[in-house]
Every structure is written in C-alpha cells, then in structure tokens.
Amino acid sequence: WSSSRTAIKQWGRKIKEKLPSARKQNKSSPRRRSRNGTGSQLCGKTRKKRNLTMSPMISVEVPDTVTINISNSQNDTISFERKYSRSLKIYEFKAKLEPITGGSAGTMRLELYSGERLVCRLDGDSQPLGSYPIEDGMRVHVIDQFPCLQENVPKFELSLEEYDKKEDSLRSFLKKNKLGKYNAEEMAKQEEERKRQEEEDRQKVDGTAIGARCRVTAKNNPVRLGTVMYKGPLDGKPGLFFGVKFDEPLGVNDGTMNGKRYFDCGPKYGSFVAPKAVEVGDFPPEEFSLDDEL
C-alpha cells in the first residue's frame, strides 16, 4: 500500500510538470477551424447569438372595435351589442351616444360596468376609448339630465284653413304647378280611364259563365290555369272580381275572403283576381306523367 501511494504521488508530479508546457503549446498553436473556416470558439458564440434571436416573442392582438351595451339613468332601456372603434375619443363617443340615450354630450357622465361591478369612469374626454379596460360584453352607463327626453309635450296642430294660407307647403307647391290632384286635365283623364276599365270589367264578368276554363296572368306570379267558380263584387272591396279555382295549389285561399265563403276549393287552390288578369278560353288541365321526367 505504501509503494502504491508513492507511485501515485510521482505520477501526479509528472502531470503538474507537463501542464504549463501544454498550456503554452495551446496558446501558440493555430485555432481549430470549423467547416466554414472560422474558429470553433467563434462558431459557438455565433450559434449562441442565433439562438437568442430565434427565440419566440409573445404578442397580444387587440381588436380595433369593441361591442358593448348602453344603459342610462333616465329609464331601464338597454341598447344591446353596439360596436364602436377603440380609437374614438371620449368626446366623440359621447356624441354618438346622444341619439341613443337622448342625453347631451356636453353634460353626460360615463361609467363602465362589468355586469353590476363598476370598473371605472370614462372621464377623460381627450382619451381614446381603447385606453380604458373596456372589453366586449361590458356596459357603459350614461348619467345625465336628458334634456332631449321630454314627456307630455303638447302636439303641434295646424287647422286646414291655416295650412291652406301657407305658401311654403307641399299643397301650395302642387297647386301652383298644377300637379297631382290639382291638375284638372290629368284628373279628368284618370277618371275617364277608370270608367272605361270598369265598363270592360263589367262586360267580361257578364259574358263569363261559372265553370269556364281560364288562364290567369298576374304580376309577380307564374301563369296559372284554373276554373271560374265565382264572379261579382267582394265585401269591402271596390270593383268586380273572378273567384278562380286553380289546377295546382298556387293560390292564396280556399274560396273565402274575410270569413265569408264565395266558393269551395282546397287550401291554396283559390284566389280572387281582377278581370283584366283573367283570360277565358279553351285551357284544358295539364296532364303530367312520370315519363316526362328522366
């Protein structure tokens, strides 16, 4: 054991004697090159810098608009889901609240609530709305005297005689320019056309038999075939009408009008049509076969 200890001590001394020479040799020897021609130590530093620049950065995106609810101190009315830009100044935001609440932008005070909890007061008129902790679903409460909301205001009324004396009214303009019902010539033409149409309708109705086949062409509706089931006036309606039972359910009723039955047919098979939209003739029912479709 003593001889082993002596051997170990001698080996340690030899190692210490060789260390200074090895360090000098490392300093004087050329630096090891990497594959790209730079020193390994330099490559290590570069790799360290690259790792730092490639580290991920965390960023939070804030939307440009916020959707909130608006309430006021005048009543319990709440305007839901109003969208506003976060860049709006508070004084601009107040101006937009005027038509909603009836308050005045110059006197109203704003409070921000999350549920029933008061978050803060929006009292910086020159501050943008987004500078406050406002989030979607919050509520802005408007406090004001609401001078624009006045109840029991007397209604302005003007008699017909006073209205006729006004020179800046619509009636005065129509009279001066002989427009509408104040154009005697035009009104006479319209009355003449109305009487002519009434006479044509009466002759068509009188000359059409119940059960006659017809084709109906009405505005905003497809051309429909059917059978005349009724002809004459309708309660509460001016003029004459045909009651038509269609071959297909393309009508609007079952032969009744305002609770009164004029003829019988299935639901959606009946309709009352002006005579000018009805053409009486040989219009047999169309036959459909499965062979017509492939």
Automatic annotation (TrEMBL):
Residues 232-274 form the CAP-Gly domain. Signal peptide: none annotated. The keyword Cytoplasm applies. It is found in: Cytoplasm. One of its GO terms (cellular component) is microtubule plus-end. One of its GO terms (biological process) is tubulin complex assembly. The keyword Manganese does not apply. Pfam families: CAP_GLY, Ubiquitin_2. InterPro entries: CAP-Gly_dom_sf, CAP-Gly_domain, TBCB_Ubl, Ubiquitin-like_dom, Ubiquitin-like_domsf. Residues 24-35 have a biased composition (Basic residues). One of its GO terms (molecular function) is microtubule plus-end binding. It comes from the Eukaryota. Residues 1-50, 185-205 are annotated as: Disordered. SMART domains: CAP_GLY. Keywords: Chaperone, Cytoplasm. Its main location: cytoplasm. PROSITE patterns: CAP_GLY_2. Belongs to the TBCB family. This is CAP-Gly domain-containing protein. It comes from Anopheles merus (Mosquito).
